[in-house]
Specification:
CATH class of the largest domain: Alpha Beta
CATH topology of the largest domain: Creatine Amidinohydrolase
Number of helices: 10
CATH architecture of the largest domain: Alpha-Beta Complex
CATH superfamily of the largest domain: Creatinase/methionine aminopeptidase superfamily
Structural class: alpha+beta
Number of strands: 18
Length: about 375
């Protein structure tokens, strides 16, 4: 697929003459160049030609991997310190020059600007530097990113294999007296060594995220030095990013048998809700319907007031991307989409109960790409 060519065709339908892409993930999708996201911006101008504006220090990297674009580097020499010229200004100089060369920096031309990726200050500076009309856009590239091609799916599958392995090692190491950070180190080390063994030619990063006890009732708590105790709920998470493509697996683990019936009921309700969501996934179903299937199971079990978030989200170049398994997302699922399914229950002072799997939408329904066991009998340590 000629991704910049696809975007040009889409711009014609939107009556846009060209577009400035500044989201790092969208730039990566269109060019193959994944920039480290930091103070020096990377921008892609898609018009008659495709021009990638990037820091000079990234030039050799981009030459090795970027496709279907002209490279226009900028240096740091013009920086003015606090209150002076910024890296954004230096990149903007190259954008203006590229637009002028293509004859589109003039009154009457319409430039699409990613509304979600440009700050107000950035928008103000663009408006001052360019003579064309700025048109805020939303979701033009993200719409294409929702359906993965075979190469993208292979990278996600590779990440899922690493995440499952990290989960297995971290769960096996879960015992009284071990700290969350020690479990995190075990999981990370296992995934990295497995990546060296199985995918030595790929760029990989990993992350384990075990949190325990009452702290696990906070959906986005981070691992720390807390030492595990008998009776704890331990919410394990493992994820891998392979050549920029993300995945995740999460499991709720008990350190010893659940100490009361309420904990067992919460685990069982969460497990039923996740399975209901997975079974609801198939082409033609809306994200809202999948979310509703998960919520219904939790509500029927009496845990509706302990739901704190949507039931899942898309995954790809971002770990959270469109589509979203939420009450308000009417996106119709298509074969090739990849989502997490992760309904959760959070009991204050007790713990969190959440499984998450990376799931592919196929013509036949849902295919779980992460496969670590979900049943309680395998998750009591």
């Amino acid at each position: 697929m000629d991704r910049p060519g696809w975007l040009r065709e889409r711009l014609r339908r939107e009556r846009l003459d060209f577009m400035l892409v500044s989201s790092p993930s969208n730039v990566a999708y269109l060019t193959g160049f994944r920039a480290v996201s930091y103070t020096r911006p990377v921008m892609l101008l898609v018009g008659r030609d495709t021009v990638l504006v990037l820091p000079a220090l990234e030039l050799e990297h981009a030459r090795a991997v970027a496709t279907a674009c002209e490279l226009r580097p900028y240096g740091d020499e013009g920086l003015g310190g606090v209150g002076g010229r910024s890296p954004f200004d230096l990149a903007l100089d190259e954008v203006v020059a590229a637009a002028s060369r293509q004859g589109i920096n003039r009154p009457g031309c319409r430039l699409g600007v990613e509304a979600d990726a440009v700050t107000w200050e950035g928008y103000r500076r663009l408006a001052g530097a360019l003579r064309c009309e700025l048109v805020p856009t939303r979701g033009l590239v993200e719409e294409a990113r929702m359906v993965k091609d075979q190469q993208e799916l292979e990278l996600i599958r590779s990440g899922c294999a690493l995440a499952d392995h990290g989960m297995a090692v971290a769960v096996a190491a879960t015992r009284v007296g071990v700290s969350e950070l020690e479990l995190m180190a075990e999981g990370d080390r296992a995934m990295l060594l497995e990546a060296v063994r199985r995918f030595p030619g790929l760029v990989v990063s990993v992350g384990s995220r075990p949190v325990s006890g009452p702290k696990s009732a906070l959906p986005h708590a981070l691992p720390g030095g807390r030492v595990l105790e008998t009776g704890d709920v331990v919410l394990h998470g493992a994820g891998a990013v392979v050549e920029g493509y993300c995945c995740e697996v999460e499991r709720t683990v008990f350190l010893g048998q659940p100490r009361d019936a309420r904990m067992q009921e919460a685990f069982a309700a969460m497990e039923r809700a996740q399975w209901a969501g997975i079974q609801a996934i198939r082409p033609g179903v809306t994200c809202r319907e999948v979310d509703r299937a998960c919520r219904r199971a939790l509500e029927e079990a009496g845990f509706g007031r302990f739901i704190l978030h949507r039931s899942g989200h898309g995954m790809g170049l971002d770990v959270h991307e469109a589509p979203y398994l939420s009450e308000s997302d009417e996106t119709v699922l298509s074969s090739g989409m990849v989502v997490s399914v992760e309904p959760g229950i959070y009991l204050p002072g007790v713990g969190g109960f959440r499984h998450s799997d990376t799931v592919l939408v196929t013509p036949a329904g849902a295919q779980c790409l992460t496969r670590y066991p979900r049943g309680l009998e395998r998750l009591v340590r």
